[in-house]
Write a structure and sequence with these properties.
Blueprint: H1 2-17, H2 24-29, H3 31-59, E1 62-69, E2 75-81, H4 83-106, H5 113-131, H6 136-154, H7 161-192, H8 197-210, H9 215-231, H10 240-243, H11 249-257, H12 262-269, H13 271-274, H14 278-299, H15 305-326, H16 329-349, H17 353-358, H18 370-398, H19 405-424, H20 429-457, H21 470-495, H22 500-510, H23 515-527
Antiparallel strand pairs: 1-2
């Protein structure tokens, strides 16, 4: 039965990686066969991922070696399958199945569809095998393989000059992330004498219990954190993501619903190591907060649907990294799942947004007086805080609350306040009551989902949380105050949209605060080639 368990766990990735054995020309030449195989293999991968999850429930985690070697390093090739890996394999295979089916219609009739399907499958297979990797060497190699196969998709249309430049920028940032990951891998070997996850997690647990972390473990955590930031488009490594919007829609969906989550998965998987470094946790918290705020502000100023979705992803990934910085890994995993499902749907359906918008009749309304606007805002905020903190208190009574519970409740309150304010500005009681009902529904769904994910992830070793230092707690509350300040500024900007200072801020935000321009110039300097003209 263990052999069957091993085969079921590894087979989804193996099926998806089979196209790596053929050439682009062969894939294009035998397109009907390639289309049939892609559809069948993606469906089979999803089915086997679900079976593997069922076996995990029935038989427990799997830590299995297929091939081992003692030279030049004691390494093994195998699978490490726990509740975290099960959740990610089901998520990836589900999203992958949808994207492959969409691609069959999206590129139908193109002579290079076989090549495209080939690299879509290889990318999905690399990610699938990465999440069940047994050690850091496998993980790092597949991390790099994922980046390489994604680069083939980003350069699918060589005639799109800006798309090629975006791929070059992504290539440079990915190589930087690889360097951080390889450096962390080397230091981990020198510090712990092993690269196997099971042994590393046991050693990290021992260090947590004895409080014997040192400067080397601090540096290892920081390197892993920065490596994750490059993959998940955190400031200042974010500029590649909006520039890749010229790529085919399935590639955009694959990046935003799948690849972009790899950084978060890295932090969650290696949380026993990362939490040994308080500096790494602080870095994740601060950079995640800055990325979330910057991405949200820029998103609201973009006129392109795809660029708006790109900055939405940047903001969401920033918030996910913030949650990791808090040590709220269950919350971060829930965020990954919800964001992947939402963003896959958003990209695959964005082509019909304009058609739907054209059918919507917009009627002008009279401006609302300042007194009413402020009253509705304050009332919405008060009700939102009551809902969010009441649910947080009840949730904390039922199960162990996540780290940073108060700050997460504050941020949830601000999100609910925006929903309530939209209804309150109408000054129509039925509309406002519906907004209150929607807020209650969102809150209940959020905390119920969190309780479920927390119970699932609780069975994994990658769920380690340490007590926060006073300095870390101060950073948490400073970040929370920053979110409140940004909410207030956005509310004021909506009312005083014609004020000169607001218009100047809008102009800077529309240009993404010129960080993309700086990244483009640096890319041109490295490649020693001029930027293409629009």
């Amino acid at each position: 039965m263990d052999v069957v368990y091993q085969i079921v766990v590894v087979m989804p990735a193996v099926l998806l990686l089979i196209p790596a054995l053929i050439s682009n020309a062969l894939a294009n030449r035998h397109l009907p066969s390639m289309r049939r195989f892609s559809a069948s293999a993606s469906a089979a991968a999803l089915a086997m991922a679900l079976v593997a999850a069922g076996l995990l429930v029935a038989r427990g985690p799997l830590d299995s070696i297929f091939v081992s070697t003692t030279s030049p390093l004691p390494l093994s090739f195998g699978v490490y399958f726990d509740s975290l890996a099960a959740v990610m394999t089901v998520l990836i295979s589900s999203i992958g199945f949808v994207i492959v089916r969409y691609s069959l219609n999206y590129l139908e009739g193109e002579s290079t569809q076989g090549r495209f399907l080939r690299w879509i499958m290889v990318t999905l297979g690399s990610v699938m095998l990465m999440v069940v990797s047994r050690n850091l060497v496998m993980f790092t190699a597949l991390w790099m393989m994922t980046s390489f196969s994604l680069h083939q998709l980003l350069t699918h249309y060589p005639e799109r000059t800006w798309g090629i430049w975006a791929a070059r920028k992504k290539f440079l940032i990915s190589r930087l992330g690889d360097a951080f990951l390889i450096a962390a891998l080397w230091l981990t070997w020198n510090t712990f004498g092993s690269l196997e996850f099971a042994q590393l997690f046991a050693a990290a647990q021992s260090m947590h219990d004895s409080g014997t972390s040192n400067g080397m473990t601090t540096l290892i955590g920081v390197l892993f954190a920065i490596g994750a930031m490059t993959k998940s488009a955190q400031v200042p490594f974010h500029s590649w993501l909006p520039d890749t919007m010229e790529m085919p829609t399935p590639v955009s969906a694959l990046m935003h619903a799948g690849i972009i989550n790899a950084g978060g998965f890295l932090v969650i998987r290696l949380s026993p190591l990362v939490t040994l470094s308080q500096l790494a946790m602080d870095l994740l918290l601060i950079v995640g907060a800055v990325t979330a705020v910057m991405g949200a502000v820029v998103m609201m100023t973009q006129t392109s649907i795809k660029r708006s979705l790109a900055y939405s992803t940047i903001a969401q990934m920033g918030f996910m990294m913030l949650q990791c910085g808090l040590g709220a890994f269950s919350v971060a995993l829930l965020h990954i799942i919800a964001h992947a499902a939402y963003k896959a749907h958003a990209f695959l359906s964005c082509g019909s947004v304009l058609d739907r918008a054209a059918k919507i009749r917009v009627e002008s309304t009279a401006p609302i007086r300042s007194a009413r606007l402020i009253a509705s805002l304050l009332g919405s905020v008060a009700i939102a805080f009551i809902i969010a903190f009441g649910a947080s208190w009840l949730f904390g009574k039922l199960i162990e609350p996540p780290p940073g519970k108060a700050m997460l409740a504050v941020i949830l309150s601000l999100a609910l306040a925006q929903l309530l304010w939209t209804g309150a500005q109408t000054w129509a009681m039925p509309v406002f009551l519906r907004a209150v009902g929607a807020s209650l529904g969102v809150t209940i769904a959020y905390y119920s989902s969190l309780a479920l994910i927390d119970s699932v992830l609780g069975a994994s070793v990658s769920h380690h949380v340490t007590a926060a230092s006073p300095w870390h707690s101060a950073i948490v509350w400073l970040v929370g105050a920053g979110f409140v300040a940004i909410f207030a500024l956005v509310a004021l900007a909506m009312h005083y949209a014609h004020a000169p200072v607001v218009q100047r801020l809008y102009l800077h935000a529309a240009n993404a605060f010129y960080l993309e321009t700086a990244a483009q110039r640096m890319t041109a300097w490295i490649y020693r080639k001029p930027l293409p003209r629009y």
